[in-house]
């Protein structure tokens, strides 16, 4: 699992630097204490914590059952943007959130055993 992460980061970081060079040449980057701390926090603390949690959870549960929970990321993004940024929750966002939750529930239902 750790080797997978090394390959993932080893290939994606140079690719994103290249894309940044192509599309953001004339946009200055201002390194402040806040931006550096945010980058370090997101890169090391959040990513490292999530990686450790994922590996420990994968030891207990099947990956095929856990992968569906990745669909909670946009749902949590919508809910946290409402909570912290005061973005409005429209009816379509609420319906979409409900459909995602229903899909996760349906995928994780245990089939009835045939007698």
Defining traits:
mainly alpha
Please outline what is shown here.
With 115 residues, the protein is mostly helical. It has five helices and no strands.
- Which range does the strand content fall in? under 5%
Helix segment count? 5
Order of helices and strands: HHHHH
Q: What separation lies between the terminal Cα atoms? A: 40 Å
Residue windows where pLDDT falls under 50 for at least 5 positions: none
Structural class per helix/strand content? mainly alpha
**Helix proportion:** over 70%
* pLDDT averaged residue by residue: 83
Rough outline: extended
Number of DSSP strand runs: 0
Rg, alpha carbons:
19 Å
Largest sheet: none
Structural features, described:
The protein is mainly alpha-helical. The chain has a domain at about 60-110. It is extended and about 65 Å long. Helix content is about 75%, strand content about 0%. The protein has helices at about 1-25, 35-60, 65, 70-85, 90-105. It has five helices and no strands.
